[in-house]
Amino acid sequence: MNYLASLSPIYAEMFLLVMVCAILIVDLFIVNYTKTVTYLLTQTSLFCTVLILLFTHQPGAAHLFNDMFVHDVMSYVLKVFICLAVMAMLLYSRSYLLVRGLFTGEFLALVMFATLGMMVMTSASNFLTLYLGLELLALSLYAMVALQRDSAIATESAMKYFILGAMASGFLLYGMSMLYGATGSLDINRIADVIQHGTPNKSLLVFGLVFIVAGLAFKLGAVPFHMWVPDVYHGAPTAVTMFIGTAPKLAAFAFVMRILVEALQPLMIHWSGMLMILAVLSMAVGNITAIAQTNLKRMFAYSTIAHMGFLLLGVLSGTIEGYGSAMFYAMVYVLMSLGGFGMIMLLSREGFEADTLNDFKGLNQRSPWLAFMMLLLMFSMAGVPPTVGFYAKFSVLNAALDAGHLTLVVMAVLFSLIGAFYYLRIVKLMYFDAPESHEKIYIQPDSSLLVSLNGMAILLLGIFPNTLMSVCFVSVQQSLLQ
Amino acid sequence: MNFETVLFYLFAAVTVFAALRVITARNPLHAVLFLVLAFVSSAGIWMLLEAEFLAIALVLVYVGAVMVLFLFVVMMLDINIEQLRKGFWQWLPLGGLLAALIGVQMVWVLGADEISAGTTAVKHAADYSNTKELGRLIYTDYVYPFEIAAVLLLVAMVAAIALTLRKRRDTKRQDVNKQVKVRREDRVRIVSVPSARQVESVQEAAASNHGHTAD
Fold it and tell me: Of A199, A198, A317, nearest to A260 (Cα)?
């Protein structure tokens, strides 16, 4: 009994795992095409996971399983946000997937497995668990991209994603094995300790670090390891694209924090230089290439690359402010891309994808409220003041400036200025162009409520950003000080 | 250089050679067989590291089960290797240059100072049970990663079934219900053929035919 009580920090993960297995079995007995029971069960279990997280949380960090698992404030906050983002994604994508025949029990199970993988990643305290969590997430994502078997483009993008993802995992593992060779441990705290106080082989450490950064950049989709992002975002069903583009970014942030900041903090002079190159290239290539895109999903893919550049900018500052603002940026990014992809799915219907720029022409005449929500999302992505996107960019730039990266900040501002063009072009298409079709937009009440909430959250968080910002700062601070 | 070192270099050389042949072999079957060779020789390297259980598991599981399955798949698929290799020579200079660059850099960085393992592996006595120790560690210190690995296998299973099990509209299958319920009227159509008509003409034709051959 005592042992069970000591496991309380991991109750949420255990509950989620039990529920996935239960849902897999329950789903077999449900012949209903709409899968309402399975869907409600999935949403309920995700919601209960959040509740368990809220109720079992205790201040301070808990280490379990020989330091393989750590539950600190950062992992707690990120896990809650990950579960909420997944719930929102399921709400948005239900009707989209139903008309395409993709809303199956397996899809829901894979979503939950991926969520479990993200939770494992965020609270990993050992390279082994970090890697296993990453693979759990990645494997589910590969399968989800490929689920649309009859679409050649989805299959192709799944192959690309799988092969490049496997290569990135290889890079990561090779780098991890080098670090293991140099420090003799896979435990994150132990590695940090050995590097600081021991006498590990420096060149072997840096050699391993190069591979780790390359692997991380692959997973984040930072230039020059970004080639898979546009193809996968474009090829996958929009619901899956939304999933790839939202919650996993939070897990990836935790991954970067655990490896680079917690384990390899003493090597910061080396990795911050590498991240600088990645960040500048990502912002440049992402923002400039996005201008030439006519497909909205591809455009969002390049915009993701640019946003990841900003996120790296926060991390490479190397201060609590930098990490906190990067975490804030990741959360805001998730919120914005939920809305962006949600809008594509709202406008799509059976046999039609509203994923080109022309589909948004004159949206204001067809549905002024949706157009206004899209306007808020685009303003936020571009970083226009009243919205939260502005504060995210502002705090990252502020942290980078405090760390003395003036040139980087100037470049970041210039590139996001270029980026503003393609976001504002959508606003122009919606408000000043004539619509191509006058077909009535029919949307589900639940997803239209969600898109309104999403847009309002972007506006409200933009006006009152302090609560979320301080949550991010406190969680990063607490996790690093332990 | 003792015997163990000689064995290590032998196994390492065979592994590298086999791995290269896997990607250069023209016949996909040969590629699979070279992959088997690569597995067996890396099992040899693991054996030198005193990881007997892992070495035997590699041979049993990979060579014994996975690769045989692989072989079946390769034999069943009609792989056009020429089409796969299209553009190989065109991209070889660029790829080769990049690979050489990375190789040189790696040698440069790692060759700069002596890379030696901080600690050498402890030699165990002959009666030390590798398997027992592995089992103990998996179920104590490493139980959490072990469980996640199990979940990973479950995901692989779910994904494989979700991707391959689907109803295709163009397949023809038996419907046993229909077969059992079938009545005579559904299958047998009685046609009344008028008999004994035009018999003469047939005889005539036969006769003329006969006469024809007689000529």
Answer: A317
CA distance B119 to chain A (A): 8
- Residues with Cβ within 8 Å of A390's Cβ and at least 6 positions away in sequence, in order, are A380, A383, A384, A462
Note whether B145 contacts A128, CB cutoff 8 Å: yes
Select from A447, A454, A419 the least CA-distant residue to A246.
A454
Which one of A31, A203, A206 makes the best mutation probe of the B interface by having the most chain B beta carbons within 10 Å?
A203
Residues B138, A265: Cα–Cα separation, whole Å? 30
Q: What band does B110 get if pLDDT is binned at 50, 70 and 90?
A: confident
Instruction: With CB atoms and an 8 Å threshold, state whether B144 touches A109.
Output: no
Residue A368 confidence (pLDDT) above 80: yes
CB-nearest partner of A147 from B141, B148, B162: B162
CB atoms within 10 A of CB B161: 12
Q: What is the DSSP letter of A259?
A: I
Which residues of B touch chain A, with CB atoms under 8 Å apart?
106, 109-110, 112-113, 115-119, 141-145, 148-149, 151-152, 154-156, 158-159, 161-163, 166
Q: CA nearest A135 in B: which residue?
A: B152
Q: The whole model's pTM is what?
A: 0.88
- Written as six digits, the tokens of A338 are 């939920």
Instruction: Answer with the residue of higher pLDDT: A73 or B212.
Output: A73
Contact (CB, 8 A) for A7 and A14:
yes
Measure the CA–CA gap between A21 and A309, rounded to whole angstroms: 38
What is the number of alpha carbons within 13 Å of residue A82 lying toward its C-beta? 35
- In the predicted model, what is the mean pLDDT of residues A173-190? 91
Q: Which residues contact A40 (CB under 8 A, 6 or more apart)?
A: none
B155 and A203: CB-CB below 8 Å? no
CA-wise closest residue to B129 among B140, B137, B121: B137
Contact check, Cβ <8 Å, B151/A200: no
Per-residue buried b or exposed e for A17-53, using 16+ beta carbons within 10 Å of the residue's own CB: bebbeebbeebeeeeeeebeebbebbbebbeebbebb
- Residues A396 and A329: their CA atoms lie apart, in Å, by 8
Contacts of B145 in chain A (CB under 8 A): 68, 126, 128-129, 132
Compare CB distances from B152 to A109, A135, A146 and report the shortest one's residue: A135
Q: Is A26 on the interface with B (CB under 8 A)?
A: no
- Joined together, the tokens standing for residue B209 give 């035919």
For A95-148, write each residue's pLDDT tens digit: 889 888 888 889 999 999 999 999 999 999 999 999 999 999 999 999 999 998
The pLDDT assigned to A423 comes to: 93
